Amino acid sequence: MIRNSHHGGTLIVLPPEGTDSLAALDAEGHEKVLESVESVGQRHRSAYRLCSFVHDAVAIVVSQDGTVRFVKWHDGVVTYWDNVATSVLDV
User: In what order do the strands lie in the sheet with 77-81?
Assistant: First the structure.
């Protein structure tokens, strides 16, 4: 189900509701730190739920502050990378 709001659409994927994620500390995702879903907004939560349900998915979350986070299922858990260089996109 997709719900629209003034910030854009929200993809609602029911299971699992309380999906935590791991922050990758290196490019390969070998070193990770747990992050609770309580510390992120709806865009991030939707991406975490999608990747926990569709293991082949890769989600790209763009925050209001302009940071970019890549999210995917990696080694049996939702993992994200937000140390991705985006300077090539700056104009």
Answer: 32-35, 21-24, 77-81, 68-74, 58-62
Strands (DSSP E) contained in 1-91 are 2-5, 8-11, 21-24, 32-35, 58-62, 68-74, 77-81
Q: Is 64 helix (H, G, I), strand (E, B) or coil?
A: coil
Q: Report residue 68's pLDDT band, with 50, 70 and 90 as the boundaries.
A: confident
User: For 64, phi and psi rounded to 5 degrees?
Assistant: -60, -30
Separation between Cα atoms, residue 66 and residue 33, nearest integer Å: 22
Question: What global pTM score does this model have?
Answer: 0.69
Write the pLDDT tens digit of every residue in 6-21. Answer: 555 554 444 455 556 7
- Residue 15 has a pLDDT of 42
CB proximity list for 2: less than 8 A, separation 6 or greater? 9, 10, 11, 12
